């Protein structure tokens, strides 16, 4: 299979490329990435050593550059991880989120149509469903739940999902969509919650925590997500949306305390700061469709994944230098 993986210098896309090269050594992969502040080529160090991997710097919203790439290579599938991904930055300014997360998807879909690509897979998020009350128990949102995004980031991702499904209906574009919960693991930018807590705790610096810290996230080890996306691209039913959840909910304050404890630091490092506007309280997914349809379930228990992640950041301080700033 020849894959175009966009956003592969980022956290999940980079893990996906490493996973695919290991699991499908005969596949060819081209990575297209704009190398924004969130891109880090060191994440792809192992991939660069492989003959069946090629990196192209470029913007998915640049129709001319995307057109030229699709004219020079014939892809069996496009897996789109490229996006502006940080909610706080979207609250500071939504323009680049609409450009990359919505218009970029439009450009990729048009290129897939023009060149007859067999599958466009859109990597989406559970945040498109909005949130649940903290006290809510039960299976959470299913794939048919209404989209109620709370912030410009999740609204841009919801808009992209709608565009993907509309292209399928209008032009017959073969598509799938995955909506995963919060990922954690190696190679995640330190602006995100778990690496932020780890890197600040390691440095003995204050750890900002929004509001009362009671917001609950469902954590998914990144390799479990990569395995799910890989299954969907190869064996998933065309036209379907798949939820992918870790099934492990924990409040931000409890998680911050746990990491600080693992690193032998004092909880007084955790400092409450004013809450994020529109801050989602709880995410929770019903993942029965992917488990019954594709036999997928998360394999890495949260405690083990967190141990691996903390160890990885302890041992890979150099990797942080690969970011522009
Ligand atoms: N991180 C999570 O917990 C999570 C959860 C659910 C869904 N997602 C989705 O997964 C995808 C990947 O998330 P991530 O955490 O790896 O993000 P990330 O911010 O770590 O990486 C994004 C990558 O995309 C690149 N990029 C951004 N805009 C681009 C553009 N216009 N053209 C080409 N490349 C561009 C960046 O340079 C970067 O390498 C995103 O679509 C995100 O919405 C993330």
Blueprint (SSEs and pairs):
Elements: E1 2-6, H1 11-23, E2 28-33, H2 45-48, E3 53-57, H3 63-72, E4 77-80, H4 87-92, H5 95-115, E5 119-125, H6 152-171, E6 175-180, E7 182-184, H7 193-203, E8 207-210, E9 216-221, H8 222-235, E10 241-244, E11 249-251, H9 252-262, E12 270-273, H10 288-294, H11 302-315
Parallel strand pairs: 1-2, 1-4, 2-3, 4-5, 5-6, 6-10, 7-9, 8-12
Antiparallel strand pairs: 9-11
Helix pairs in contact: 1-8, 3-5, 5-6, 7-9, 7-11
How many strands? 12
> How many structural units, i.e. domains?
1
CATH fold descriptor? Rossmann fold
Strand proportion, as a percent range, falls in 15-25%
For the record, what is the CATH homologous superfamily label? NAD(P)-binding Rossmann-like Domain
């Amino acid at each position: 299979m020849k894959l175009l993986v966009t956003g592969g210098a980022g956290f999940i896309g980079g893990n996906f490329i490493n996973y695919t090269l290991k699991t499908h050594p005969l596949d060819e992969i081209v990575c297209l990435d704009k190398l924004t502040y969130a891109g880090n080529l060191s994440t792809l160090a192992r991939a660069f050593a492989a003959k069946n991997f090629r990196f192209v710097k470029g913007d998915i919203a640049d129709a001319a550059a995307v057109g030229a790439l699709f004219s020079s290579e014939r892809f069996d599938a496009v897996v789109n991880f490229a996006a502006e991904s940080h909610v706080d930055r979207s609250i500071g300014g939504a323009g680049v989120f609409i450009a990359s997360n919505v218009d970029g998807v439009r450009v990729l879909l048009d290129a897939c149509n023009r060149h007859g690509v067999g599958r466009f897979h859109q990597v989406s998020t559970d945040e498109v469903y909005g949130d649940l009350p903290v006290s809510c128990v039960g299976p959470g949102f299913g794939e048919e739940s209404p989209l109620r995004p709370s912030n410009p980031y999740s609204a841009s991702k919801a808009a992209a999902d709608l565009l993907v499904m509309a292209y399928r209906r209008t032009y017959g574009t073969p598509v799938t969509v995955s909506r995963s919960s919060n990922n954690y693991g190696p190679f995640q930018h330190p602006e995100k919650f778990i690496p932020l807590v780890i890197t600040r705790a390691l440095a003995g610096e204050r750890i900002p925590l929004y509001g009362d810290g009671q917001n609950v996230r469902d954590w998914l080890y990144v390799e479990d997500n990569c395995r799910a996306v890989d299954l969907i691209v190869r064996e998933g039913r065309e036209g379907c949306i798949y939820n992918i959840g870790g099934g492990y909910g924990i409040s931000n304050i409890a998680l911050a305390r746990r990491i600080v404890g693992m690193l032998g630091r004092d909880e007084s490092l955790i400092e409450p700061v004013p809450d994020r506007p529109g801050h989602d309280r709880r995410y929770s997914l019903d993942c029965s469709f992917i488990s019954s349809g594709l036999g997928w379930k998360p394999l890495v228990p949260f405690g083990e994944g967190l141990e691996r992640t903390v160890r990885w950041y302890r041992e890979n301080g150099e990797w942080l230098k690969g970011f522009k700033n």
